[in-house]
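User: Show me an example of a complex going from sequences to C-alpha cells.

Assistant: Sure. Here are the input components:
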Amino acid sequence: MTAATPSPPLLEVRDLCRRFANGIPAVDRVSFSLAEGELMALLGPSGCGKTTTLRMIAGLETVDAGSVWLRGIPITGWRPERRGIGLVFQDYALFPHLTVADNVRFGLHRWPRAKAVGRTQEMLELVGLTALARRYPHELSGGQQQRVALARTLAPQPELVLLDEPFSNLDAAMRLEMRQEVRRLLQRAGAAAILVTHDQEEAMVMADRLAVMERGRLLQCGTPDAIYRRPASAFVASFLGRSNLLRGQAHGSAVDTPLGCLALVTPAQGPTTIAVRPEQIRLVADAQAAATVEMREFRGHDQLYRVRVGDIALTVISTNTDALQEGERVRLEVSEQVVALPA
Amino acid sequence: MIAAPPHRSLRRRPGLPLARWLVSGLGLVVAGLMVLPLVYLLLRASEADPAQVAALLWRWRTVELLANTAALTAGVLGLSTLIALPLAWLLSRTNLHGRRWLNLLAVLPLAVPGYVMAYALIGLAGNYGFLNQTFGVTMPRPQGWWGATLALSLYCYPYLYLNLRAAFAGLEASLEETARVLGATPRQLFRRVTLPHLMPALMAGWLVVGLYVIGDFGAVALMRFRVFSYVIYQQYAIAYDLLYSAWLSLILIAIALLVVWAESKLRQGQHYSASGSGSGRPLAPLRLPAWGQVLGLLFCLAVAAAALGLPVAVLSFWISRGVSQATWQGLLTSFVQSLSMAAPAALLAGLMAIPVAVLAVRFPGRLSRWVNRLSFVGYAVPALAFALAFVFVTLRSAPWLYQTRGLLVLVYALAFLALAVGPIRSALYQARPAIEEAARALGLGPLASFRRATLPLIQPGLVAAVVLVFVTVMKELPIAFLLAPPGFRPLAIQMFSRTSEGMLVEAAPYAAAIIAFSALAVGVVLRRDRQWPQTSPTTTVPDSTEAPDPTAAIAPPSCR
C-alpha cells in the first residue's frame, strides 16, 4: 500500500485464507495493514468473509494459510488470550452472571487488585456508567450494554480493538449516537480499530480507511473519499452508494457513452464500463430531449428520479426544489469526471 | 494454562483441539460404559445352545407376555390420553375459573410413583381396607390388567398433559381462524387443524409414557400382572434362571428400541410450525357457559381426587392405624441408606453429563451425535434389563464388583444420565460461545474461560441435573432390587416388599417418604424454566438430529 517504513505497522495481514468445510474459500488471500491509532472499516455484504477475517485476527478462527503480524511479530498460531487484541462482539457477549463493574474488570485478572479497581472506575467514568456499576447486563439498555462491552474491551489497554457489527443491535437513533461515542472512546484510548460492518454509510462516517470485501476477496482498500470517487470495480461502485453503470468506448481521457462524451478521472482505452453517481447527473427540462422521467420519489432534502434513455434506466438524485413531473422530457448533463471500471 | 513460548505456539492452532480431544475422550468413555454391558449381555445370551433358547422362547408363555405388555401399554396410553387431553384443553384453551390451581393439581400426581399408586389402590380393598373401614364397602383387591392400567395411568397422565398443554398454548390464532373462514365446522376444525398440530406433542408424550410402562416393574409386580419385567424379576430372583431372564431382557430391550424407532420415524418430515413470518397471535381462550364451568371443574377435581386425593387418603388411613416405633426407626435407617447411594450417584451423573453436553453443544459432529444418542440408552432401556446386563458383566468378569456400592452408584448414574444431560445441555445452549470467546479475548486460557465464564452460567442447569438424579435415585426400585449390596434396604425396596407381603401399615411411612421426595423432584422440574436472563437473544438453536432431551417437557418417569 505505502512504501516500506522503518518501523513495522501495528497489524499486518498477509494472504489470509480460510476455507469452509466443503473447500470453498470463505476468506481468500486477504492482505492489508493497519497503522497505530487508525480506524479501518471492513465492509461488505453478509457472508463476504469479513467476520471470519476478524475472527482470524483475534485468534478465534483457524487460519488455513497466510499470516497475521502484530508489530512485526508473527502471531498467526497464537491462542487468542495471548494476543492482547480487544474484541467487541455483535451481541456484546457480556457475562450475564457478573455486574457491570465485574464485567469491566474481567480482563484485568493479572493486574494488582487496587490498580484493577482503579482502572475499572476510570473506564466506567469514561463511558459514563459509574452510577450503574452494580447493575447486571440484563438491566441495561442496548446502548448501555454496548458501552459496557467497549469499556470491558478497552480496560486492559489493547493497542488494537476489533468490532464485529457493533451497531446492528441498536435502533436507528441510538446507532447514530453510538457511532460518535465509539469513535471518541477509541481516540481517547489511542487504540487502532477494525470495524466490521455491512452498512456503507456507517463505514464511511466512522472509518479513516475502508476495505471492501466480496466473496472472500478484498476488492479495494483506501480512504472513504478515494473509494467513493474512484471505485475499482462495478461491485464497489454499486455497493458504496448508488451508481449508474454504463457501457462506453474510452479514448484516453474521454469516453463515449449513451449520455454523450464524458471526461474520465483516469485515462483508459477501448470498450469499458463506467460508473456515474446519481448526484453527478443534472436534469434539465427540455421538450426536445430523448430522456423521459419515469418515476419520482420525494425524499425530503432531495428527490430521486428514475430516467429512461432508450433502453437504459438511470437513477438521478437532485436537490433541485422545483420538481420535474413523471413523463416529462429532460436533458441529462454530467458535470464531473466519471470512472472507467476495469473489465 | 501456562502460555507457551512464542516460537512453539506458532505451530499451535488457535482453536481448542486439546479441549476437543479431552471432551471427546470423556464422552466416549461414558458412552462405552453405557453400551458395553448391553453388548456383553447380547453376546453371552447368544452363546447359549440355540435349541435350548428356542425351547425357552417358543412357547405360549412368550406370546402371553407379549400380549400382556402390548395390552398394558395400549391401556395406559389410552386411559392417560382420555384424562390428559380434556384436562389440557380445559386448562389452556378455556376461561375455566381457578386454572392456576387446577394446573398445579393436574401436575402434582407426578409425585406419586406408579408403585405407590398401586399401593393406594390395593389399600382401598379388603376387610381392613380404607373403603370397608370408612364407608362399609368392600371391593376385591385390584390386580391384573385393570389394576396395573389404572395405577400407571393415574401416575403417567401428567407427562402427556404437560406436552399437550404446551402444544395447545402454541396453537396460533390465524390457523384456526383461517379454517373457520374456509367453512370448517368446529368438529372438522378439531380433526383437521387442531389434532394434527397436537400430534407431535401427543407422540412425544406417548414415547415417554410407553417407555415407562414397558419398563415398569413396581406397579405391575404389586398388581401381579404378568408382563416382561415382572417375569424377568421372578426368573432372576426366585428361579435364578440367568439364561431365560437374559433372553427376556433382550426381548424387552428390543421392544423399547422399537418404540423409540417408531416414534422417531413417525416424527420425521412433520412440520407443524407456522410457515409465515412474524409472531403468531395466540388463540383467545374459549368462554365457557355456566354449565361448562361446572362440568370442567368437576372433571379436574375428579382427576385430582383419583390421582392425588386417593393415595393421600389411603396413606393417612393406614398410618393412622398405628405405625410401630420400630417401623419409624427402620424408616430412618432406610432413608439414610438411600441417601448414601443417591448423593454420590447424582454427583457422578452430573460429572459424566458435562462432557456429553459440551460435546453436543460446542463440538457438534458425528461423534458428538453418537455419544449423545448413547447417553440416552440408560433411559430408553428398561431399568431391570439394564441392571441385569451389569449383573452379567460383573458376575462373569468382575465378581469383586458384583453387589458393591460402587457398582450400584455407577449403574444409577448411567441409568439416569439422560436426566442430567438435558438441563446441562440446555444451559449450555444459553451460554453462547461468544461468552467464552470474550473471556479468551480478555486474556484467559481455555480452561479458565470455561471455569470463569461458562460454568457460572450453566450452574443452575448443573444443580437442576444433580438434584433431579438425586431425587430420582431416592425412589428407584428395580435397579436396587438387582444390584443392592447385602444389607442395603432403600426406601423403595422396603415399601415394595412390605406391600407385596400385605403389610400395608408398615409400608405406609415409606410410601409417604417417597411421595415427599418425588414432590421435590416435580418442584425442581417445574422450576427449570428459570434460567439466567439473557442480554440478547440466543443465536444457537439445538440441533434437531440429536437425542431428545427427556426433561425438555418434564423429567421422564424414573421410579420403575
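The lines above are the inputs; the final block is the predicted structure for all two components together. Chain A has two domains: 11-85+158-234, 242-341.
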